[in-house]
């Protein structure tokens, strides 16, 4: 089941690293990410996409079957999603996933409608479904089902003015399993 858009995105603490549960909440309550995958030559490929979280903590991405995102997911199965905070100061969360290509027409259309709702800020009416179905067929759309297994967090850090007496601080984050419990 696709999760509805969050009324408010999770606000990242600026004084400590994110707990594992907060990392999952950050992903569930945001909507855009940099989708990255390995290329055979050169550096990684990256593009900005909307994603739809599910109640099973999968992240669904709509794309055209002939694009590199779908071809590499089918060939390699490893992709990274760098989930973006849309508020200043920016935070991000790197999510390492196993990806598969889904061709189920109903799922493809459901995800496209959910993406349109996140893009516009309001759900698409059910009357739009035939138009979205036609677009999905015409464009050869598929869904990339991304199953997270690890995360890497970077908290927002920013200098609000150029006062040398106030120092910006940083700390080391770590890669954490997706389903890790919070420390007691």
Structure overview:
- The structure is a single chain.
- This protein is of the alpha+beta class.
- It is built from four helices and eight strands; from the N terminus they run H-E-E-E-E-H-E-E-H-H-E-E.
- Strands 1, 2, 3, 4, 5, 6, 7 and 8 form an eight-stranded antiparallel β-sheet that branches.
- Strand 3 and strand 4 form a beta hairpin.
- The longest helix is centred in the middle third of the chain and has 16 residues.
- The radius of gyration is 18 Å and the shape is globular.
Features:
184 residues, globular, alpha+beta
Give the helix/strand layout.
Layout: H1 20-28, E1 32-37, E2 45-50, E3 52-53, E4 59-64, H2 68-75, E5 78-84, E6 92-102, H3 105-120, H4 129-139, E7 141-154, E8 175-177
Antiparallel strand pairs: 1-2, 1-5, 3-4, 4-7, 5-6, 6-7, 7-8
Q: Brief description of this entry?
A:
By secondary structure, the protein is an alpha+beta fold.
Q: What is the chains' assembly state?
A: single chain
What proportion of the residues is helical, as a percent range? 10-25%
Give the end-to-end Cα distance, rounded to a whole number of Å. 31 Å
Along the chain, the helix and strand elements come as HEEEEHEEHHEE
Estimated radius of gyration: 18 Å
Shape: globular
Average residue-wise pLDDT: 91
Number of strands: 8
Q: In terms of structural class, how would the helical and strand content be classed? A: alpha+beta
Largest sheet: number of strands, sense, barrel closure? 8 strands, antiparallel
Low-confidence stretches: none
How large is the share of residues in beta strands? Answer: 25-35%
Helical stretch tally: 4
Protein name: Pyridoxamine 5'-phosphate oxidase
Domain Pyridoxamine 5'-phosphate oxidase N-terminal: 20-143
Organism: Mycobacterium alsense
InterPro entries: Pyridox_Oxase_N, Split_barrel_FMN-bd
């Amino acid at each position: 089941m696709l999760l509805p858009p969050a009324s408010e995105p999770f606000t990242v603490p600026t004084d400590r690293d994110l707990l594992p549960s907060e990392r999952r909440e950050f992903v569930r309550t945001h909507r855009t990410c940099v989708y990255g995958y390995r290329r055979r030559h050169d550096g990684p490929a990256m593009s900005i996409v909307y994603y739809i979280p599910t109640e099973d903590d999968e992240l669904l991405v709509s794309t055209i079957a002939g694009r590199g995102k779908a071809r590499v997911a089918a060939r390699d199965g490893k992709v990274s999603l760098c989930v973006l905070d849309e508020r200043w100061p920016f935070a991000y969360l790197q999510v390492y996933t196993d990806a598969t290509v889904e061709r189920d027409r109903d799922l493809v259309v459901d995800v496209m409608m959910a993406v349109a709702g996140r893009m516009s800020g309001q759900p698409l009416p059910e009357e739009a479904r035939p138009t979205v179905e036609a677009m999905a067929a015409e464009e050869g759309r598929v869904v990339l089902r991304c199953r997270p297994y690890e995360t890497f967090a970077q908290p927002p850090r920013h200098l609000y003015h150029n006062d040398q007496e106030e120092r910006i601080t940083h700390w080391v984050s770590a890669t954490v399993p997706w389903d890790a419990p919070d420390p007691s």
